[in-house]
Amino acid sequence: MKRLLLVLAIAACGGGGAKSSPTPPTPPAKPDPDAPPVAGDPKVVAPPAGHPRTDLIPRGIVFGNPERSNVQLSPDGKQLSWLAPKDGVMNVWVAPVGHLEKAVAVTAEATRPIRNYEWAYTNRHILYLQDTGGDENFHVHRVELATGVSTDLTPGKGARAAIARRSEKVPGSILITINDRNPRAFDVHKLDILSGKRTLVVQNDDNLAGYTFDDNLDVQFATKILPDASEQILRPELKGGKLGWTVWETLPFEDANSGVVAMAPGGKSVYFVDTRGRDTSALVTLDIATKKATKVIAEDTRADAGEVMIHPTKKDVQAVSFDYLRNSWKVIDKSIGKDLDNLAKLDGGEPRVVSRSLDDNVWLVATTSELHPANYYLWERAKQRGAFLFSSRPELDKQPLVKMHPVEIKARDGLTLVSYLSLPASADPVGDGKPNTPVPLVLWVHGGPWARDRWGFNVAHQLFANRGYAVLSVNFRGSTGFGKKFLNAGNKQWGKAMHDDLIDAVAWAVANQVTGKDQTCIGGGSYGGYATLAGVTLTPDAFRCGVDIVGPSNLITLLASIPPYWAPGLANFHMRMGNPESPEDKALMMSVSPVNHAAKIKRPLLIAQGANDPRVKQAESEQIVDAMKKAKLPVTYILFPDEGHGFARPENNIVFFGVAEAFLSAHLGGGYLPLAADELSASTIQFKEGKTGIPGLP
Predict the structure, then answer these.
(1) Which of 446, 447, 402 is nearest to 426 (CA)?
(2) Which end of the chain is more exposed for a tag (fewer CB within 10 A), N or C?
(3) How far apart are CA 454 and CA 462, in angstroms?
(4) Cα–Cα distance measured from residue 684 to residue 53, given in angstroms and rounded to the nearest whole number
(5) 3-class SS at 417?
(6) DSSP assigned state of 490
């Protein structure tokens, strides 16, 4: 399936410390009766602009290292692993099940946190990915648990590697993809975990964009995106002793959400997510020989098929998730129905099975809600009993967190925009999502744009609501998960109908007395950063201020500078954004590129960038900064030299959001915690422009 995204996740990882049982969150704080109104709008309640506060949630609790996160169960069910700080940097820890006190750190990264790792099916090795300074040229590392020795299995410079497939049937090997032969193409290699020896499986000379493998680590399908953005699904065959490909199926661009999920048991059919002949994608069983659907496993008219639970060894589908306003599961295999029902009763959060033993007797379960990022349980299926292990961020349980409310907003043309609203305790003391008084609003826009916002714990929502703002996140057209009509309604609508949806959402918030007129700031990362720049340039009177994180300012230069390994999917970008080779499309792209309208900016703007960002290069931020300087417009521009597309190091996240909340306080009127000297010194932040525009700096 087509999954080339510009997604940014700026939230810190979840994690937590051991305790006997979860502590319920503190009830929301009562409203402050002495809070004065914002000047110019007596109906909008907020602290005075630039007002430092000492009674707010500390940023370190929200954006610092979690105590534990990304917990996993070894395939044999005998060991637990997680990410936790070692000397202040997130590393992998391992402990025997039932003896968490015996946990040891098995990796020793000293600068950049580990964020992605997996167990090898040997049960004796951990595999993890690591890049340098956010450049996204990930290497695959192996850690031998018995000795603690770590080995870089893909040591070449300038290449990007990924783990493509593991299998319990071939425990000593994995498949990796890597572009060390050709920067534009990912070859497939079989890698021996013990020796590190690589064997070429697929030399990608055909601009292939993805692969499907079976449990024997044999390639069964590949995908190729054609110039018109349709997608071929290919089957391998030997031609003259050399691996070749034949076209198995062709999917039109409009059905971009369709594709192979996994091989079904027996190898004669596949699990396939299919939008053909329907709007939202359904999970079906497709016969390989006839290419016909033999069974519709699960579908929902409001949302696309999401996560699929598959038995670890039998490989049959057991449940499928659908996420409209909130996530829900459709149970296919009745043998796990009781498990899912009982998991939902653990603590009231949404449960997710994150790891399973191969014998399927033990599950590792995480429950999440808008009030906690993750509580972890070891679930014994035979006893239908969950043993609480730990929460990811136990300190959050003591903080005045607020609820997140799903809302449906109508766009001007009738499309329904699934959105999420969080209100400060002062405006919603009972937590029902109905404000008793308007407050300033932060419109926080997701990246992608081919991604979506979801209900659950959101660091931006909690931080900004705690500082006195309503926070609204909108799934504008072009967001994923709501069917192909909604997705394709965003084609070539950057800065146009996609932006109109955001403007319509603000109008909804004003009409429903969530906020007052001209009391909204827009912010976000990646596409959310673009939306911010579009907001202050294309609609210069719509927002009081803007917070742009790694947002593209020029759609022409953005596509000209994408990573070389995105080339096989470039046709997707041309269909969704525009093709600069087409005069008509180029004119469209230039018309909605914020850099070309910088002189129209009237409102304060904060820009943050990672110097090593391979997706949205530093030049994207500096173009608009230079244009604003030429127009003699003020701008605050900060740079992190050791970050990429978003900020991975907690020290940098803490300082960025410290700058952001002080900036918002100056221009929107909420409270803020001033940045401390030790916070700044721990970060690599560089103030390139406009440092004086940030109050409270030491």
Answers:
(1) 402
(2) C
(3) 14
(4) 25
(5) strand
(6) T
First to last CA, the chain: 49
With tokens 């449940």, the residue in question is 319
Q: Running DSSP on this structure, what letter comes out for residue 596? A: G
For 96, the 3-state DSSP assignment is strand
- Give the tens place of pLDDT for each residue, 35-62: 333 322 323 444 444 566 667 999 999 9
Distance of CA 70 to the CA centre of its chain: 14
Calpha distance 489→477 (Å, rounded): 6
pLDDT for 123 equals: 98
Residues whose CB is less than 8 angstroms from the CB of residue 368 and which lie 6 or more positions away in sequence, other chains included: 14, 349, 350, 352, 374, 375, 456, 457
Q: C-alpha 668: how far from its chain's center? A: 27
Within-domain flag for 307: yes
> What is the residue type of 361?
N
- Give the model's pLDDT for residue 606: 98
Q: What is the CA radius of gyration of the chain?
A: 25
Residue among 436, 445, 392 nearest 551 (CA): 445
Q: Report d(CA 575, CA 562) in Å as an integer.
A: 16
Report pLDDT for 178: 98
* 364, part of any domain: no
Residues 6+ apart with CB under 8 A from 119: 72, 73, 74, 75, 81, 125, 126, 127
Q: What is the pLDDT of residues 537-560, one digit of tens each?
A: 999 999 999 999 999 999 999 999
Q: Which ranges of the chain have pLDDT less than 70?
A: 1-54
CA dihedral (368, 372, 373, 379) in degrees, to 10, reads: -40
What CA–CA distance (Å, rounded) separates 492 from 501?
14
Distance of CA 545 to the CA centre of its chain: 24
Single residue among 232, 249, 266 that ends a domain in this structure:
249
Same domain, yes or no: 445 and 508 = yes
d(CA 344, CA 539): 44
User: Are 579 and 599 within one domain?
Assistant: yes
Predicted local confidence at residue 37, as pLDDT: 31
**Tokens 């306080």 sit at which residue?**
665
Contact 214, 267 (CB under 8 A): yes
Q: What is the rounded distance in angstroms from the CA atom of residue 78 to the CA atom of residue 364?
A: 12
Domain encompassing residue 270: 257-332
Separation of alpha carbons 604 and 479, rounded Å: 28
Q: Is 67 helix (H, G, I), strand (E, B) or coil?
A: coil
Would you state the pLDDT for residue 348? 87
- The CA-atom distances, in angstroms, between 197 and each of 153, 159, 172, 192, 272 are 9, 17, 11, 5, 33
Closest CA to 419 of 437, 403, 406, 438: 406
Chain centroid, CA 244 distance in Å: 35
In the chain, the amino acid numbered 639 is L
For residues 415 and 553, membership in a common domain is answered with yes
Question: How many domains does the structure of the chain reveal?
Answer: 3
d(C-alpha 276, C-alpha 292), whole Å: 12
- Spatial neighbors of 14 by CB under 8 A, at least 6 apart, are 66, 69, 70, 368, 373, 374, 392, 393, 457
Evaluate if pTM is beyond 0.85.
yes
Which pLDDT value is given to residue 51? 62
Per the CB < 8 A criterion, the answer to whether 473 and 551 are in contact is no
CB 64 within 8 A of CB 76: no
Instruction: For residues 229 and 203, state if they share a domain.
Output: yes
Distance (Å, whole) CA 527 – CA 498: 11
Distance CA 446, CA 69 (A): 23
Closest CA to 192 of 209, 170, 160: 170
Length of the chain in terms of residues written: 698
pLDDT value of residue 133: 95
